[in-house]
Amino acid sequence: MESIRIGNDVEVLWAIYVGDGLNESPYNLSGKDITLYLRTGVNSKIVIDDYTVNDHIISWIFKGKKQTKLGTYTLTLVENEGRDGMHTIDECKFLKLVPESCMATCGCNDDNDNVRITTLKLRTKMSVAYPGNAETSITVDDRLSLTSTNPVQNRVVTEAINANASDIDAIEKTIGSITSDFEELTQKVDSIEKGGFTWTDVS
Fold first, then answer.
1. What's the pLDDT band for 66 if we cut at 50, 70, 90?
2. Which percentage of the chain shows pLDDT scores above 90?
3. 50-65 pLDDT, tens digit each
4. 33: phi then psi, degrees, rounded to nearest 5
């Protein structure tokens, strides 16, 4: 945990992952319904609404002008709040605001620095569990597979559909051409039969 002198802008980069070991992978937050909270103390919680999301990384600047309370802070991320598929994780005690520079541990009072820009890089693993079994986690794949039984990211499925869209269009055009030829052939057969001729298949 970093101790930072209150009144300094702090850039926070929070990376979210899922899975374990070789199965660990970034958890893509783009397009998901997420809410970010900043908490200090027991009853103090504010909503952060000026963050940005880039794939699995949340970026946010804790501006010095908004820092009003000393003490330890926790970040909380909630996905699908109040709905099915809700998940909640915390980055506990990621930051402590202190009243004087001599109490800071971020290097803000370094004699060699006249100006210091502080960036905190956080990494948290999200456990996505099946309903009724909190100990069973889900590994979310980031590529299509014929053998994996894991769920796959929506982005991956969409990219695959878009990649095959041209093939689907070509198949539809071929079907349309075959239908047109069949209708034309049917009309020729009807014309021949009405003229007193019988259509014979010569092998």
1. very high
2. 25
3. 999 999 999 999 999 9
4. -85, 100
State both tokens at 144. 């299509």
pTM for this predicted structure? 0.57
- Average pLDDT for 9-32: 87
More confidently predicted of 198 and 135? 198
Q: Are the C-beta atoms of 125 and 17 separated by less than 8 Å? A: yes
43 alpha-carbon distance from chain centroid = 30
For residue 87, give Cα distances in angstroms to 34, 105, 107, 118, 126. Answer: 9, 32, 35, 29, 8
Q: How far apart are CA 158 and CA 30, in angstroms?
A: 14
Q: Are 104 and 4 in contact (CB under 8 A)?
A: yes
